[in-house]
Alpha-ketoglutarate-dependent dioxygenase alkB
Amino acid sequence: MYDSEVINEESERTAFRKVEKKYKIYYDNSKKKKIPRPVDLSEVIDFKSILEKYNYDGELMEGVTAIQCDFDRSIFCLENRPGFYFIPGALSLEEQCQWIRESLTSFPQFPNRTNHDAIYGPIPYLFVSATEGKALVFEERDPHSVDSDTSNPKWKLVEEMDRLSGTGNDAYKSVKASLLLRKLRWSTLGLQFDWSKRSYNVDLPHKKIPNSLCDLARRMAAPAMPNGEEFQPEAAIVNYFGLGDMLGGHLDDMEKDWSKPIVSMSLGCKAIFLLGGKCREDSPIAMFLRSGDVVLMAGEARECFHGVPRIFTDTENAEISTLESQFVDEDLSFLDYIRTSRININIRQVF
Ligand SMILES: O=C(O)CCC(=O)C(=O)O
Ligand SMILES: [Fe+2]
């Protein structure tokens, strides 16, 4: 579902893939610099300008509707994608900063799992280690050992200088924490998903999603909940994107009840989101996702292919200057990270 590298030949020819390729970053080779190929963004729906125009004269573009409910932000829907909701600027700057910090520090911590677990086991304090210039030294796992204690990694953090001076022991290999941070692609909160079985495994050790994130998700989900029920956040996936990273077209079909929304929050650099139809042959609708935007996918929209073909990290297009100004007065490591990254937190009710 998340492996954008594995795109089989058939899907190479679909309408979804065609649009994905249109927006994906390609470079034109010049002698010295890699220059991103210009892309025509005129067909990308921009809910920020839709909101500005709506506030100004009450007008909406064709195909877009506004829903009336007792929510303190404007919510837009697409006529031909029932169950899809877009809440531009739903999160305050403080909320954005808070969830960026948590996404980088506490969320990738055991028992939450990350894409690194399969190779390295849990890595504590990855973000801090990266900013302190540390390296991780791994002890080769003994293939005959039957150690099942996954909370006890077989490696230690060392100062970069120690690493350079060498351990003199060939059984060790090392990798810079900063490289692992750049390669962090996802972490999972709450009930853990077993990718190999493509299902939630309630027996895997897990920690509840933090209450404040649950409260936020419940509040955001309310407009899309059937019969005024309360959303129960049980699992979340945090996606981390650097320049050139994309999330291929997929469906999130592992949760039992599709009438409940997926609450999806964008943080950091601006991205293009593609919302397709129920098959890959349906041409997707492209829209911008900015830091603080929230998207809800419920009902029929849960059956629609979607993905993120592009993030923008250049100053003109990333649109994170206000977010940057929040981070300048504190730890600059968050600022460094978010300048070239996007984080998405999507929260699900599983049962
Ligand atoms: O990054 C996004 O905005 C979408 C994420 C997503 O679709 C997912 O994790 O299932
Ligand atoms: Fe998804």
Notes: The first strand starts at residue 27 and ends at 29.
